[in-house]
Amino acid sequence: MPDDTSRITVRGHKAYHLMSCATWCEYMVIDANYVLKGDPAIDAAHGSFISCGFSTGFGAAWKEAMVEQGFSVAVFGLGAVGLGAISAAKLMGATNIIGIDINEKKREKGEAFRMIDFVNPDKLSDKPLSQQVKELSGEMGVDYSIECTRVPSLLNEAMESTKVGVGKTVVVGAGAESVQLSYATILYVRTLKGSVFGGIKPISDLPFIAHKCHTKEIPVDELLTHEILLEDISKAFELMIHPDCVKVLLKM
């Protein structure tokens, strides 16, 4: 079926949405492949947390990077997406997981998801960020990097943080339309891969993630940082840019 989303209108006005997702609408017409019946045993709040964001990062490490046991991973950006990537990397058996974020308070969140080391770029000396990551991973770099910040300049740093010849970078953050890549970084046989929803297939993969949350193998409770009532929804947008915010729960 052709993608005709640009022609969707409501009472003569164009309806805007992203990647087949349309929320805060009274009515929606969506593909059945995007609909999954929730397990009643799963906390409804947790279900909302893993429907996007967290699962995108989780899938980036699980499905796209396909992290191998005993390997090393660097995750750039420790919001819900980055924490998902850390969680999957740990479940896949990564032995060295490095989290990178300019918010020092994200160190605690990363450690809750079993991150090993933390780098705050704002506290670095004159060393490139990629060099700092290499020093924490035996000088050669990590096997995988997951870029979750959507900051264009960090894509080169993420790639440069990986090992020459075998390093693999998965970019998750949706940011600028164009990014200038370092030719030398690509030349040394590193791999760059894009990702949408972490390569997750909702019907077959989300139940696996939900089960891991239900059995506490994934500390999904740590994602919840704020709760507000639906009538105060405008505050949610303010909270989303707050440095302490990971996930906001709207109570209806």
TrEMBL record:
Any one annotated GO CC term: cytosol
Keywords, ordered alphabetically: Metal-binding, Zinc
GO MF terms held by the record: S-(hydroxymethyl)glutathione dehydrogenase [NAD(P)+] activity; zinc ion binding
Domain Alcohol dehydrogenase-like C-terminal residues, every copy: 80-201
Pfam family, one: ADH_zinc_N
Subunit structure as annotated in this protein's UniProt entry: Homodimer.
The protein, known as: Alcohol dehydrogenase-like C-terminal domain-containing protein
Organism of derivation: Acacia crassicarpa (northern wattle)
